Every structure is written in C-alpha cells, then in structure tokens.
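User: Hi! I'm a student and our assignment asks us to look at how structure tokens line up with a sequence. Could you show me two examples?

Assistant: Happy to help. In each example below, the sequence comes first and the structure tokens follow. Example one:
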Amino acid sequence: MRHKPSKEEFNKKFEEVTLDTEQIFKGKIISLQVDKVKLPNGNISTREIVRHPGAVAVLAIYNDKMIVVEQYRKPLEKNQIEIPAGKLDPGEEPKEAAIRELKEETGFDCGSIKQINSFFTSPGFADEKIVLFFAEDLIRGEMELDEDEFLSCESITLEQALEYIKEEKISDAKTITAVYAWQIYKLTGKI
C-alpha cells in the first residue's frame, strides 16, 4: 500500500523557497510582486505574482433560470455574460460577500445560500481564490450598483447558458463552472 502524504508533505514536494520579494505595484484591488526563489534543484529563478483579496460568485436560480449579468470587461475588450460576483472586502466573510454581491448586482435577496466549492483562477501567476455559492428561494428587489458599475441583469435557461458558452458570450471560469454545477443539479438534484 502506498503512503498517503500529509498536506505538509504534499506541499513540500516541489516547494520553491522565497529568497527575496520586490513589490512592483499596489493598486486598489491587486498588487504585483516579483519573488526570487530557490527551486527544488537548487537553481534560482523569479516568479511574477499577482496578489488578490479573493472573491465570491453566486449561482442563483429563479423560476428554473440562472440569474446573470452582462457587462463590459476591459481586459477582454468585449461584453461578457457572467454570474454575479465580486471581491471580498477586508475582513468580510465569503457568505456575506456573496449575499451582498447578489443584491447589489441583481437586486435579488436569497432565502438560502450554500457554498458549492472554491477554486483558484490562475495559480500560475495569481493567488485569487473564488468561493462559489448556490442561492435559492430568491426574492426580487432593486439593484444597488457601485458608481463605476454598468451592467444589465437577466435570467437564462440552461440551454441558453450552454449555447452562450459555445458562442463565448460566457467564457469565464466561474460562470462555466456554475453552469456545469447547475447541469449536474438538474440531473441529480444535488449540488
């Protein structure tokens, strides 16, 4: 029988030891640093790392449709259809952030919300972690957008969501993950 490594043993297997860190940029949301690291073979290399406070996203179902927002994404230079999401405020718990973002971006309050999973968006260069939630028993209300947010809210069927993925109207990892989680939920009744 093979030895199952502990979490610590697993994380040490290919560890890169940080020798020096230089902060290059510090913005409102992200920061960029360059780390000089010692590789497992003893060689020295550099790693460019984007630091992010973390975020939440919400798969919200209302009348058997997924609530989505459409907004312009400057890095992609195009509109995207996405599930409601946003960054964590300092000290904020992910569940509270998910409830807040759902309300702000869509106007919906939820009767129940539970965590589905969490994932890192781009672990090759960033530490952003998104916690994905599932919200049901929605109650329609008014959107509360930030002053620099411009978006529209709509609800789409699973078939529309799958078509939007093919058309790349939906092309971000959090929304694609949510669509497939919803598809599994519709097939099994479990999230």
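Example two works the same way, sequence first and then tokens:
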Amino acid sequence: MLMINILAGLLILTSLLVIAAKTVKNAAALYALQSLVLVSLFVYLAGEMNAHSLYMWSVSAFITKVVVVPAILIYATKKIDESGVPQGMNTAWFIPITALIVVICYMAAAQLEVPLAEHLKPALSVSLSHFLLGLLCIVSQRNILKQVLGYCLMENGSHLTLALLASDAPELVEIGIATDAFFAVIIMVVLVNKIYRTLNTLDAKQLTELKG
C-alpha cells in the first residue's frame, strides 16, 4: 500500500517536470521516466488487487509508453528547431496550480462511491489529477509539440483510472487503448511536422493561418 502511494506521488512529480521541461527532448525523456513509474504501479496494483491481467497491461505499457512514444517524440525534434518558441506560462505558477489540482481531486475521489479499497483512493485521486495536469500542459504551452505531451499525460491518467476501476478487464481492452494512443501520437506528430514545414514555427500563437 505504501509503495503504491509513493509511486502515485512520483507520477505527480514527473508530470510537473514534463510540463516545466524547457525542451521537447527533455520532456519526452521525463515522460518515459513517468511511464516507467506507471508500469511499476501496474505491477504493484496487480499484486494488491489480485488482478493478473494488470501484468499484461504493464508489459504493453512498457513497450508503448516507455519505449515507442518517447522515441517518436525525440525523433520528431531532430528535424525541428524549437529554440525560438517561448515557454508559455511562467513555471513558478505550476507548483501552486498542481497543488490545487491534487487537493481538489483528492477531495472528489474521497466522495466517490466506487468498488475500490479505501487505501487505493489516493491513487485514484492521482489518476484524476493526471488528466487535469495534461490539460494544463496543453493550455499553458505555446510549443505545439509540448502540447502533444499534454495529451500523453492525459492518456496516462485515464489509463491509471481504468486500471483502478476495471482491473479485471481483458488484456484486449488494454491493447486497444495502447494502440489508440500510439496511433494518435503518430498522427499528431505528423501534423506538427506538416505545420512546421509550412509555417516554420511551433508557436501556437503564431498559427494565425489556422484561424477562421
């Protein structure tokens, strides 16, 4: 139980580091680290909840989230110059905003009537927080490739929520979710490269040609 809550806390910390990272390459590496924490959390949850399907979830999550998706994002940066893109929101605001999100989600999770052990509700609150932190990354960053990482954070949060609330779901469900996320990232990276080749910028505020 203690290890599960520690790993859940590490998910929040790594999310904050991903959002605050100055380059997409560093953010992708931190996302890989976070996904490794998520994989470890799946393994501990499998033992705690006696859900053997979560072991298979951890394997597929390791392949897609720890290895493949970060590799795609890092590869995408090789042909893109992101040095001229402003950082967006001041990073000093991320800590109080993150704290507020965690507190609100913890209070919300405590009120939920779900078939979940009481000591696992902190992990559920983290999964809900993760979704909102991904949204924070999307709205606070001007670098559109960093916004893709915001989607990845949201997907990690929804993945953990599913593991907690539907741990007995077939492995096929997990494979479907992982595959959807994998192809979504590929499509978004292709679109980002197309935008960069056309407009020579990754700054979301400079994409005026996309406005109606």
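Here is something you could point out in your write-up. The radius of gyration is 17 Å.
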